[in-house]
User: Fold MBL fold metallo-hydrolase from Methanoculleus formosensis.
Amino acid sequence: MLFEKIKSDILAHNSYIVGAGAEAAVIDPRRDCLVYAAVARREGMKITQIFETHKNEDYVIGSRELARPTGAEILHGAREEFGFGTGVREGETFSIGSLEIEVLETPGHTVESISLLLRDRSVSDDPLMVFSGDALFAGDVGRTDLAGENRRREASEMLHASLHQKILPLPDGTIVCPAHGAGSVCGGKISDREYTTIGYEKTTNELLALSKKEFVERKVNERLYEPPYFTVMRRLNKEGPPLIQNLPHLRPYSARDIRSLTDRGAQIVDIRSPTGFAGGHIPRTLNIWREGLPLYLGYFVNYEDPIVLVDDFNLDLDHVVRHFVRLGYDNIAGYLAGGFAAWFKQGETVERSGIWSPPDLAENLDDPSIYILDVRKIDHREEEGHIAGSHHIYVGHLEDHLDEIPEDKRIVVHCDVGYKGSIAASILRKHGFGNVTNLLGGTTGWKAANYPLVKEEEEKRALSAPSPM
Amino acid sequence: MLFEKIKSDILAHNSYIVGAGAEAAVIDPRRDCLVYAAVARREGMKITQIFETHKNEDYVIGSRELARPTGAEILHGAREEFGFGTGVREGETFSIGSLEIEVLETPGHTVESISLLLRDRSVSDDPLMVFSGDALFAGDVGRTDLAGENRRREASEMLHASLHQKILPLPDGTIVCPAHGAGSVCGGKISDREYTTIGYEKTTNELLALSKKEFVERKVNERLYEPPYFTVMRRLNKEGPPLIQNLPHLRPYSARDIRSLTDRGAQIVDIRSPTGFAGGHIPRTLNIWREGLPLYLGYFVNYEDPIVLVDDFNLDLDHVVRHFVRLGYDNIAGYLAGGFAAWFKQGETVERSGIWSPPDLAENLDDPSIYILDVRKIDHREEEGHIAGSHHIYVGHLEDHLDEIPEDKRIVVHCDVGYKGSIAASILRKHGFGNVTNLLGGTTGWKAANYPLVKEEEEKRALSAPSPM
Amino acid sequence: MLFEKIKSDILAHNSYIVGAGAEAAVIDPRRDCLVYAAVARREGMKITQIFETHKNEDYVIGSRELARPTGAEILHGAREEFGFGTGVREGETFSIGSLEIEVLETPGHTVESISLLLRDRSVSDDPLMVFSGDALFAGDVGRTDLAGENRRREASEMLHASLHQKILPLPDGTIVCPAHGAGSVCGGKISDREYTTIGYEKTTNELLALSKKEFVERKVNERLYEPPYFTVMRRLNKEGPPLIQNLPHLRPYSARDIRSLTDRGAQIVDIRSPTGFAGGHIPRTLNIWREGLPLYLGYFVNYEDPIVLVDDFNLDLDHVVRHFVRLGYDNIAGYLAGGFAAWFKQGETVERSGIWSPPDLAENLDDPSIYILDVRKIDHREEEGHIAGSHHIYVGHLEDHLDEIPEDKRIVVHCDVGYKGSIAASILRKHGFGNVTNLLGGTTGWKAANYPLVKEEEEKRALSAPSPM
Amino acid sequence: MLFEKIKSDILAHNSYIVGAGAEAAVIDPRRDCLVYAAVARREGMKITQIFETHKNEDYVIGSRELARPTGAEILHGAREEFGFGTGVREGETFSIGSLEIEVLETPGHTVESISLLLRDRSVSDDPLMVFSGDALFAGDVGRTDLAGENRRREASEMLHASLHQKILPLPDGTIVCPAHGAGSVCGGKISDREYTTIGYEKTTNELLALSKKEFVERKVNERLYEPPYFTVMRRLNKEGPPLIQNLPHLRPYSARDIRSLTDRGAQIVDIRSPTGFAGGHIPRTLNIWREGLPLYLGYFVNYEDPIVLVDDFNLDLDHVVRHFVRLGYDNIAGYLAGGFAAWFKQGETVERSGIWSPPDLAENLDDPSIYILDVRKIDHREEEGHIAGSHHIYVGHLEDHLDEIPEDKRIVVHCDVGYKGSIAASILRKHGFGNVTNLLGGTTGWKAANYPLVKEEEEKRALSAPSPM
Assistant:
């Protein structure tokens, strides 16, 4: 029996290929899909079926792309119309050699969500695995907010039913294979265990221990961010995304090209580290470090204007381009040939922004001319505490709240490490804030250097307390 | 949490790397061990511990090799003296970031065998996984015959106790990670599921359903082959195998070199397919197709004389060399440069052997001048049936039973597909049998072509029945 | 200065990338063209120009393919209409950083052929290199037969003029970079030196020492084979070949699929070695060993019916597929999953053909029931001599001369090594010849084993001599 | 004929593999030498000879390393004792298939230097190529200063004789293959042409046009830098360098490890870009950007204390480690796991240095509190001119001239681009200079931004001119 998990790094999207004898099936393939064909070739197998557990929001699905070279059949939940593939219903089964895949309808995250039960009929009628899509994750369950605020309660109730009537009744020893892992934007707090089981989740996943009422309340009040690109993904994945055939080729651009491209609206994305960016960058460029691209691109980059990358040494851009393709950014165009040095060798304007270490901030904490901006997720801020006096705007929402930020102060932006702080710094610089500093290490470095974080209540209390005489 | 299974292909040896935070541990590493370091680097982790679940017999362990570049600590069961590392006892625990590994002493397969329980303390006190070494496999349990016939009963009793007192009491949802998968010489009938759980094994693994008495009887009577190289492995893995630093470099040899090397005892291994070998080969060479090397090398190749490979196009020899290294064949020396064509272009003697398809054999089944030799495992022969009139010698034992084979007949050798048949054909040719033919397709092709297989009893019955008038 | 030669293996096609500063040019790119873009990226350069020295006959040109992702300009000789690019004339120059490329019109091989002179203007006005296309090779000059018999004299005269008036007057120290190397079907006897110079060619290339008259006579009487696929190449390369974007994906086919595909006309190409093929093969399949594909495909495989590959272990098929793409075989469809074993495991019919070593033939040389067929090039046969009594049909022409071959004899086919002999054997088997044997080692092995080759004249003399009493 | 140039990037060291038939020879192999064996394997050849044209100073020679797995013979000039290999003399010849290599003794650069003449005897007695070692380069000739000041004139005279009596008399069409290309520390102004010829050099290499007297004067007065590691290389390459078998494995170190390693003398090398370093770095670390390692390591890093790398994303460290190995730095130990972020997340002290753009400097040019330090090569400074008022210390000599630099000023350091400026900045910071700023773009950016460079004379004149009233 073939079983392999193919992970899309950082995006934390899991796909699976299973097979027996000469046949294989793929579950939730990604768009850069030759990897599945390569596994099948190594095993001497043919991919005959491709399953989509649901109409994903966070990446472009790969089933159409993979169906082209393999000729496999595409199968998805029947409760919604797709522009491609075949709808399947509760209880339908599919054979892959001696394996059998049975469809469980598990609506909640989306209405057409399905889970897939895998049995090895040559061994037993007991299920060996369940591919739970975005219904059940390790330590978490699927989001129920994406269909809109007014349908949230209903979606949460559906999800509760799917979990408790379909998935949790499976034997404890059933291995759970969800569509996402830790770090995904599709879950609040997905745990980072690579594999889990029904039994382990029943014991440890606190959402499963809640009563239906508690569960629905919790889900209705959950605060999750929705990157704007989700809307594009939903549309593409419903209609059937454009075929790319292969990864796009990145064109080299000279420093001079960059200038003229920018004039015509090109989006320059600096994929270097926070210190590289702060030390010098092309004016008005967005800084998202290379490993943050899948998580933050979708907030800041549009799908029309060409995208050009800036790096120091242009290493491993072939991998970087995958992040764009997986999110549907087929407008990725090229990169600055020769790296950032090609820019500054031309005598082009170089901008800098500030970097502070925790002690730098600690010394200036009472300086009224600084404005501390926390760009972490609100949950993170509330749970971990914050630097006294700091204001909060989530990095993904920063462009919509620029008017809340004073223009005449030194803006000290921070996140939990320093990368998202650098994204925020680049956005502030781009919108004309003249004095922006990123706190290197963020709250993690701040705590490690033994500076305090406070909670909202304490701060309020402190502020309202009568000042000591 | 990092969790990755690293499989040694064909050998069906599983090793694992787990980690959390900045630390990682490796369980049962193989000798070509840079793969673990590469995974750790990708994750930004340091390998701090290496566990050996037992003193393996089927491959050279990699713990010493991996300890060199990583500085990690080696840990193994304390019930036997090793020439390296530190012995650990029941209940000892080790932290890897937020993970905890607890030692379970699970003797049986060997006396010092341990299993390792993995918990994620940041989540729960329940175990998430158990690394069961050669105690519990998917669908099977460890061999108990390797310590010698006279200790087999005792070993089987110990294994039963280890399974029922230590491993099976774990929660059903615990994921089981054994040291071997399907195809390994370390188990009779290991199932090919990639992952399993305590619950699934309890339901489906028939050995676990036996009473203690039944279990011991079954294990005591189990017929398994023991390749002679196991003896070397046991010694090396106890003392600590020689360090190789890296894979050996294969030297190119000319056709002329081959001749003089052979005169000095070199072992020429032809890694081509059965038809390639039959169509023409260097006289007196052993044919083991490239994917059969890990399973059959250990029966036929010694550890002293240099080993030289013959292929058609010398493709991917860097992978082939790993099979030798994993089995401790550091005497792997080189390959015939230019491939087999370099041999026949020199006008060197080329030998051929015969190839038959099922119809060829069917037509000649009653010919008294042929001698049909079945070289499959005895279990396989008995369970599947055999070609009427065929004799049986397991391929691994062929060299010890040559005197049973008539020299004046056409020997039609077969296995289940044709590869092991070709090994056998090469051995017969090497020992001077002049008329040897391999049945292409073996019993699989035979059955597919609708020819019958018979069972021993039926055959006896048929033979003893009064012949019809 | 960047200078790199990119060779298409076996096809012996040379292409070049040169560059300086931030710009690069490519000369005669192949169709699988990302390699040029990768070199340019490594150097931090942009490909700005692509030159075609002529409308090639032996491969699909890559300029259109490469222009797509790079945006580079395509330039070719102006004396013929192309369906793409821009025509250039004698003396036009192009700057690539500090480099200069000057066009020399050098008709002869084709009427629109150009050579390109490379100068480094930052160093000297002397040319450093000349890209001589198919005008001048190491040790040879271009073919003049491809425009048709009636235009051969004219083409040869043009080529002589191009060589003596344009190329040879260049300084002796000019490095010559031709479009083909040894083994190419585009030259009779191209030498295998990787680089050469005007000076070295003037001294050693005997064609350059001929008077104009001698030269034209030599060229007019030259006997070269023209694979039929040249016609397709000429048309594609004139119109602009279809874009492939990337290498095609090979589909896995089962043994069963192969059968039904064959019924519908699919072309099964067995890429194994002669002994592998002889030992057993799928009936009616063509055997071209993997390294012979670029040279012999074009004689036997059509551009319409799907092509399916058969190998033993399916190694490195991603490279094999390039050979098809370079020759325009976009109908390459897939491969037999599981290799040839998948065929014989199904109990499918396996055919065999014969293999003989030189002594086998020597012993049977006088047997009237054998028919020895030499399939080498006629030049090779005449220069090296032949096995007494053998008949000659070039392998590429075999299908047109089947009626010359007796059906009731054992056909012993041979070439110089054994590979082309196996192609011929497969064709004979395909056309129903029942008794076909390939001479392993061919004339090379024959000579090495000290058997004689005779020349045509000697043989005639011997035959006409009064037989001794 | 096989001919391939293997370049060691950045070091600009050229080695060559040539072969014919089944044999190959390697000239001047590098220490990470499996690449030659891989080429030979691809060609079906055996490496039988390894030639060292001279006892190199700039890298560890690879002949002993390559002899181990190949069994090839090592050959070098006989005029000096080596600790390994066999000395060869003028006129000795070696066969590699149909190729012939003839030894020319060409002393000058070193006393035992040889050049190698390659002929293809199957074609002609004319030489096809000359491997000129460090005697003749494209556009330059070998250094004659390395044997010491007092032997410089003698070495220069020898080199002149070698060039004019041995190499230049070769036919113009002979291809010249030198041991180094542009950028090498072994030549002052080696041109960047990849291939050249005797004819082209005779016409364009101005050193060859000088009279003997002029030549010797020029060489005696040439100003070249000698990195201190040359001494180590000379010793190793004479005795025979230690065998490494394979590239060393880099250990991951945590931020905590780094601190304790530093306390024990470890050398931390930050391989990031100038802006990355300036934006934040570990205190007292050396910054050499990854591509500058081969050229600048040898000035600053010792051969005893362990070396640890710091990067942002730890990309492609397997390539980086080669630079260390090629220069004999077998004390390369590891890298900071998790990259520089692992440092600042721990709340560890982060230091910053300054970055200026050309306008920043232009505005402050008259500020008496800044000290402009030019760290380019002196030739470069003199030929291109310098920023008015700047002081000069070559980056490689900076540590010996720290007392010339005022401690109370802002030191604005610059080179021609910004990378070597960052090396210098890191050294100044390491030695306690508190206010150090690197000019991004260096003189290249300065000129591109239209700011003036002055020549020494002009500046003196300007300074001495009576100030205008």
The interface with chain D takes residues 1-4, 20, 120, 123-124, 126, 128-129, 139, 171-175, 191-204 of chain C (CB under 8 Å). DSSP finds 16 helices and 24 strands in chain C. The mean pLDDT of chain C is 95.
